[in-house]
């Protein structure tokens, strides 16, 4: 079964990530920093993917260097433990959701980025 979100443009969800963070006093730059840390994209590459409306599936499949430290991300998203999920695209999306949640909850950037 393919989830609908896999074909959805990353650019259509990105504003929600920004809004969630900004509502809690964080910035778009911090959201970008989290996304770039997770995926290995440069800011220029990332901006191009947003402009091109790249789907989630391609966004993660073509990521230059998924950060190995992402596997230390734990906790629940939508009632599911991210560390217990089947490895794959949905887990990568949930890792990102969890990082944005942590950012919005006021965690220090160093901790969000597993520094």
What does this structure look like?
- The protein is mostly helical.
- It is 57% helix and 3% strand.
- β1 (76-77) and β2 form a beta hairpin.
- The longest helix has 16 residues, at 89-104.
- The protein is globular, with a radius of gyration of 13 Å.
Write a concise keyword list for the protein shown above.
115 residues, mainly alpha, 2 strands, globular, two-stranded antiparallel ribbon, 7 helices, 57% helix, single chain
Q: What structural class should be given to the helix and strand makeup?
A: mainly alpha
Distance from first to last alpha carbon: 36 Å
Helix share of residues?
55-70%
**Overall spatial form:** globular
Radius of gyration: 13 Å
- Low-confidence runs: none
Mean pLDDT: 96
Describe the structure concisely.
With 115 residues, the protein is mainly α. It has helices at residues 4-7, 10-23, 28-39, 43-51, 56-61, 89-104, 109-112; strands at 76-77, 80-81.
Topology at a glance:
Layout: H1 4-7, H2 10-23, H3 28-39, H4 43-51, H5 56-61, E1 76-77, E2 80-81, H6 89-104, H7 109-112
Antiparallel strand pairs: 1-2
């Amino acid at each position: 079964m393919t989830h609908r979100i896999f074909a959805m443009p990353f650019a259509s969800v990105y504003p929600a990530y920004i809004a969630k963070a900004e509502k809690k006093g964080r910035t778009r730059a911090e959201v970008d920093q989290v996304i770039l840390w997770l995926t290995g994209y440069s800011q220029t590459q990332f901006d191009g993917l947003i402009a091109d409306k790249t789907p989630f599936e391609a966004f993660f499949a073509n990521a230059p260097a998924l950060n190995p430290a992402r596997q230390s991300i734990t906790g629940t998203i939508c009632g599911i433990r991210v560390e217990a999920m089947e490895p794959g695209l949905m887990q990568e999306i949930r890792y990102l959701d969890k990082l944005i949640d942590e950012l919005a909850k006021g965690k220090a950037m160093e901790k969000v980025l597993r520094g």
